[in-house]
């Protein structure tokens, strides 16, 4: 199958120009081939996309954290996929639970944004994940299936699609699912992709785990069969932690 691990850092609404020093540290590690076997990706705030592209070597991906579904128009404060691509992004995170909650993004919204991203040539990293209440109500599989089906556009290619499984209750909490649960849910997601797009497609798509990934627990997740990397929030803000996670791959 040969899926290369993807180690993705989501800076969220963190990062001023002073923090570009963290990217210089990542660039130095890449130059000395001291980053582990995975592909690296950093998703800074939109204000730092252009600078991030300049500070990082070309084999480190730069991602935006969302995009608008339209190409242009009267959408004050929003950014189109093409604008983000022009600013330096090659990828975009879509449907993060913070976007789904704070901005009420539905699966349909995420799908429309993904279509716009694909039209602009961006790789899409589509996030899915259940809440604590949904988990307790044994609704995890229903929620993940619905989000996956509704958020991923039919015209996507396997190279332009990454899925991130991020249980909401694990984000920023220090809590994580058991390795057994992660393995089971990643297998569920891959099977669901196979049902819709076929086995060859599904076996190429990388499925990341996200939620309180740290240098101390990353290796355990990377060892799991259907886990193809990590989407990292808090621990991606310091290059030392981010690189320690990458090296544990
Ligand atoms: C995230 O928000 O994508 C995330 C996984 O955050 P953290 O690693 O801080 O839990």
Automatic annotation (TrEMBL):
<feature type="binding site">
    <location>
        <begin position="10"/>
        <end position="12"/>
    </location>
    <ligand>
        <name>substrate</name>
    </ligand>
</feature>
<comment type="pathway">
    <text>Carbohydrate biosynthesis; gluconeogenesis.</text>
</comment>
<dbReference type="GO" id="GO:0006094">
    <property type="term" value="P:gluconeogenesis"/>
</dbReference>
<feature type="active site" description="Electrophile">
    <location>
        <position position="96"/>
    </location>
</feature>
<keyword id="KW-0963">Cytoplasm</keyword>
<comment type="similarity">
    <text>Belongs to the triosephosphate isomerase family.</text>
</comment>
<feature type="binding site">
    <location>
        <position position="212"/>
    </location>
    <ligand>
        <name>substrate</name>
    </ligand>
</feature>
<dbReference type="InterPro" id="IPR035990">
    <property type="entry name" value="TIM_sf"/>
</dbReference>
<dbReference type="GO" id="GO:0005829">
    <property type="term" value="C:cytosol"/>
</dbReference>
<dbReference type="Pfam" id="PF00121">
    <property type="entry name" value="TIM"/>
</dbReference>
<dbReference type="InterPro" id="IPR020861">
    <property type="entry name" value="Triosephosphate_isomerase_AS"/>
</dbReference>
<feature type="active site" description="Proton acceptor">
    <location>
        <position position="166"/>
    </location>
</feature>
<dbReference type="InterPro" id="IPR000652">
    <property type="entry name" value="Triosephosphate_isomerase"/>
</dbReference>
<dbReference type="GO" id="GO:0046166">
    <property type="term" value="P:glyceraldehyde-3-phosphate biosynthetic process"/>
</dbReference>
<dbReference type="GO" id="GO:0019563">
    <property type="term" value="P:glycerol catabolic process"/>
</dbReference>
<feature type="binding site">
    <location>
        <begin position="233"/>
        <end position="234"/>
    </location>
    <ligand>
        <name>substrate</name>
    </ligand>
</feature>
<dbReference type="InterPro" id="IPR022896">
    <property type="entry name" value="TrioseP_Isoase_bac/euk"/>
</dbReference>
<dbReference type="GO" id="GO:0004807">
    <property type="term" value="F:triose-phosphate isomerase activity"/>
</dbReference>
<feature type="binding site">
    <location>
        <position position="172"/>
    </location>
    <ligand>
        <name>substrate</name>
    </ligand>
</feature>
<comment type="pathway">
    <text>Carbohydrate degradation; glycolysis; D-glyceraldehyde 3-phosphate from glycerone phosphate: step 1/1.</text>
</comment>
<comment type="subunit">
    <text>Homodimer.</text>
</comment>
<keyword id="KW-0413">Isomerase</keyword>
<protein>
    <recommendedName>
        <fullName>Triosephosphate isomerase</fullName>
        <ecNumber>5.3.1.1</ecNumber>
    </recommendedName>
</protein>
<keyword id="KW-0312">Gluconeogenesis</keyword>
<dbReference type="InterPro" id="IPR013785">
    <property type="entry name" value="Aldolase_TIM"/>
</dbReference>
<comment type="function">
    <text>Involved in the gluconeogenesis. Catalyzes stereospecifically the conversion of dihydroxyacetone phosphate (DHAP) to D-glyceraldehyde-3-phosphate (G3P).</text>
</comment>
<dbReference type="GO" id="GO:0006096">
    <property type="term" value="P:glycolytic process"/>
</dbReference>
<keyword id="KW-0324">Glycolysis</keyword>
